């Protein structure tokens, strides 16, 4: 509309043109600002009319009414347009009056995410993913892995045996829920062409109480490389590379001598504590280090047990628990959080 010649009114005119682009909430706010009964700009302007000298009242009053009418028309038109748009959307099945639903963000389980990252890193090094059964025989789970016949791990207190007849034959024995993923090493070596580079994720079971540091059912990831000329140097280089990729490029590692029946020599790899980065804290019991995995050069007897010529071939193996690694990474102090399916906890860590 044309300027009225009254500065107080004319400053409002540019706002007329913006009304047609306001949404419902902004429209209400603008209506209140311009025409609101208490403090609207035009209401204020009207209040001034009776205070003016009589000869000025008529002209000013007419201008106020003109501007008011223009705003009222613009507000009415915009309301109608918004109402029409809402009706059209509703007719298309979109109900704009329905409260918005909170966005759901899906996510992997934190242990699955860890497992995926571990397998990805090793796939990048030429390892293939292999799986084996969760019900194994004593031979695969223990004997082929060079456990002596009377090893305490085979005790009923530690191992969950499956009811039924023992499996006959050289690879048989009592049936059990595998206590580690190491028997998949045996399956990768048995009667298959070499070399082998495999990463083997899967569930394992032990007759353990469900407490802050144990779960009776848990994941492990096993690794195995067997070829001509593989040495402990390859093992160290591979696992140090893994630790740097997984925990961060500057992460320090150390290897400590250890013992496993199926590796010789055997070691455990520690990484610098992910919470205190080496200075010592309760999570690492003040040592600055956290134990991540067991590893070693494949015991020649394991190669011989699977028909591999241990004079010609050597290898390395390692095994780790992705739940434990997830705990180290996030500073989780109770493994049960990872296996209880509490959505509030899981949603917090989901990636
Ligand atoms: N099987 C071992 C366990 O359950 C973990 C392990 C240690 C696997 C050393 C390996 C290894 O392959 O070389 O505690």
How would you describe what is shown here?
With 351 residues, the chain is α+β, with helices and mostly antiparallel strands. The protein is built from 12 helices and 9 strands. Strands 1-4-5-9-8-7-6 form a 7-stranded mixed sheet, sandwiched between helices. Helix 3 (24-35) runs antiparallel to helix 5 (54-91). The longest helix is centred in the first third of the chain and has 38 residues, at 54-91. It is elongated and about 120 Å long. The two termini are 56 Å apart. The structure holds 3,4-dihydroxyphenylalanine. 3,4-dihydroxyphenylalanine binds at residues 180, 182, 222, 260, 263, 294-296, 317-319.
Pattern of helices and strands: HHHHHHEEHEHEEHEEEHEHH
Span between termini: 56 Å
The kinds of small molecule bound in this structure are: 3,4-dihydroxyphenylalanine
DSSP helix count? 12
DSSP helix fraction: 25-40%
Low-confidence stretches: none
Name the strands of the widest sheet in spatial order: 1-4-5-9-8-7-6
> How many runs of DSSP E, i.e. beta strands?
9
What is the overall pLDDT average? 92
Strand content bin: 15-25%
Rounded to an integer in angstroms, the radius of gyration calculated over CA atoms is 37 Å
Class by alpha and beta content:
alpha+beta
Main sheet properties: 7 strands, mixed
| Gross morphology | elongated
């Amino acid at each position: 509309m044309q300027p009225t010649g009254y500065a107080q009114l004319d400053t409002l005119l540019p706002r007329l043109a913006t009304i047609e682009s306001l949404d419902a909430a902004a429209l209400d706010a603008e209506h209140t600002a311009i025409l609101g009964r208490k403090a609207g700009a035009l209401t204020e302007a009207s209040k001034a009319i009776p205070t003016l000298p009589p000869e000025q009242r008529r002209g000013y009053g007419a201008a106020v009414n003109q501007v008011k009418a223009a705003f009222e028309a613009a507000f009415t038109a915009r309301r109608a347009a918004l109402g029409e748009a809402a009706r059209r959307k509703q007719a298309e099945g979109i109900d704009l009056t329905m409260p918005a639903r909170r966005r759901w963000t899906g996510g992997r389980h934190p242990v699955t995410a860890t497992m995926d990252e571990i397998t990805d890193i090793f796939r990048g090094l030429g390892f293939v993913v292999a799986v084996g059964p969760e019900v194994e025989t004593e031979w695969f789970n223990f004997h082929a892995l060079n456990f002596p016949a009377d090893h305490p791990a085979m005790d009923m207190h530690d191992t969950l045996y499956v009811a039924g007849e023992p499996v006959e034959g050289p690879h048989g024995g009592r049936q059990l829920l595998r206590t580690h993923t190491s028997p998949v090493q045996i399956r990768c070596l048995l009667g298959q062409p070499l070399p082998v580079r495999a990463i083997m994720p899967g569930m394992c079971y032990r007759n353990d109480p469900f407490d802050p540091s144990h779960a009776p059912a848990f994941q492990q990831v096993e690794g195995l490389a067997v070829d001509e000329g593989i040495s402990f140097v390859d093992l160290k280089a591979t696992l140090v590379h893994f630790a740097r990729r997984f925990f961060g490029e500057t992460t320090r590692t150390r290897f400590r001598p250890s013992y496993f029946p199926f590796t010789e020599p055997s070691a455990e790899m520690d990484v610098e504590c992910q919470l205190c980065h080496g200075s010592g804290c309760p999570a690492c019991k003040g040592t600055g280090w956290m134990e991540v995995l067991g590893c070693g050069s494949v015991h020649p007897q394991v190669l011989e047990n699977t028909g591999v010529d241990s004079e010609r071939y050597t290898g390395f193996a390692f095994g780790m628990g992705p739940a434990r690694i997830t705990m180290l990474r996030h500073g989780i102090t109770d493994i049960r959080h990872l296996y209880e399916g509490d959505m509030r906890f899981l949603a917090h860590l989901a990636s």
